[in-house]
Design brief:
This protein is of the alpha+beta class. It is built from 4 helices and 5 strands, in the order E-H-H-E-H-E-E-H-E.
Length: 100
């Protein structure tokens, strides 16, 4: 089981780190009553953080069970998407770049 968190590539590193933490918690709280989250949280609870461009970000919004995060300090700009954990992911996710 993995949770994917996608961060827009133009987001400054400090905001990206903060967004990752907020995204993980926000997705957990939104989906905590689902069987997938119960299985994921029982461990190990993997998270995959990816850096995406605008086109990938918009495409990712088409997939279900996600939450988009914004940042007030950046004029409420969308900066991250967190997805409910699952064991199988669409092919799209396998080709995203890891955040490094």
């Amino acid at each position: 089981m993995k949770m994917y968190i996608l961060i827009k590539e133009e987001i400054p590193t400090g905001f990206a780190v903060l967004a990752s933490a907020h995204a993980s918690l926000t997705a957990y709280l939104k989906f905590k009553d689902s069987p997938e989250v119960e299985e994921w949280i029982s461990g190990p609870f993997y998270k995959v953080i990816c850096r995406v461009n605008d086109k990938e970000f918009e495409k990712a919004k088409e997939y279900p069970d996600q939450i988009v995060l914004t940042e007030a300090a950046l004029d409420n700009k969308e900066l991250a998407i967190a997805f409910k954990p699952r064991s199988e992911w669409p092919k799209f996710f396998k080709f995203l770049r890891m955040y490094r």
